[in-house]
Design goal:
About 35% of the residues lie in helices and about 25% in strands. By secondary structure, the chain is an alpha/beta fold. It has one domain: Spore Coat Polysaccharide Biosynthesis Protein SpsA, Chain A, CATH 3.90.550.
């Protein structure tokens, strides 16, 4: 029996650092940024269905986008929760039972089908996997007054991205048992004491959080950007 893999694309944030612009619907190369984030999952042969989690104000725009771009794998579009992890949990419930699930930030438009496939392969080994790139800069820990406390060993530090891929049952258990605030799903699985495998990410797979990030996306796509 072949395995079933689904995807949850989390796009329920407020975008408060975007100077009033809705980053999800900012156009890059003629398409909304969110469409770029969804398309690789539509194209990836291993992904059977997609759940899109959005803020309530964007639900209609999300449905229109799915229809406009023919995202036939998008089987559900649901309202997000108060926290990111609440949004992922709602997405898991809407996705329904499957073998593996990839969780991706809707603000990462340059994900590729190849990266998704690498994540699925890595997750088959341990049940949980996250793309990451080694940190190139020197990293220092500082106190609240800005005084350096120590310099960290960067040889052991990684910048983690999405899509993070998990056995569906493992991630669902993590979301039911871990209630503390976390910044990503891998941290919830770690809190269960389960191993998370890092796999090779991409330096192009940046998360758009500021207007300056859009400038970088423009350079990477060699296309003009129009504010939504």
């Amino acid at each position: 029996m072949s395995e079933i893999a689904g995807a949850i694309i989390v796009a329920a944030g407020s975008g408060t650092r975007m100077a009033g612009a809705d980053k999800l619907f900012t156009e890059v190369a003629g398409q909304p940024l969110l469409a770029h984030a969804i398309a690789p999952f539509q194209e990836c042969a291993s992904i059977e269905r997609i759940v899109l989690v959005m803020a309530s104000l964007n639900l209609k725009r999300g449905r229109d986008l799915v229809e406009r771009y023919g995202f036939t794998k998008a089987t559900a579009l649901v309202k997000g929760g108060e926290r990111r992890q609440d949004s992922v949990r709602l997405g898991l419930e809407a996705l329904g039972g499957c073998d593996y699930v990839a969780v991706h930030d809707g603000a990462r438009p340059l994900v590729t089908p190849e990266l998704i496939a690498r994540g699925l392969e890595a997750a088959r080994e341990t049940g949980a996997a996250a793309p990451a790139i080694p940190i190139a800069d020197t990293v220092k820990e500082a106190g609240p007054n800005g005084i350096v406390l120590r310099t960290l060993d960067r040889s052991r530090l990684w910048a983690v991205q999405t899509p993070q891929v998990f056995r569906y049952d493992l991630l669902l258990r993590a979301h039911r048992e871990i209630t503390a605030d976390v910044t990503d799903d891998a941290a919830m699985v770690e809190a269960l004491g389960e191993p998370v495998r890092l796999f090779e990410g991409s330096r192009a797979n940046i998360k758009v959080t500021t207007v300056e990030d859009l400038t970088l996306i423009e350079a990477l796509t060699a296309a003009p950007i129009k504010q939504a």
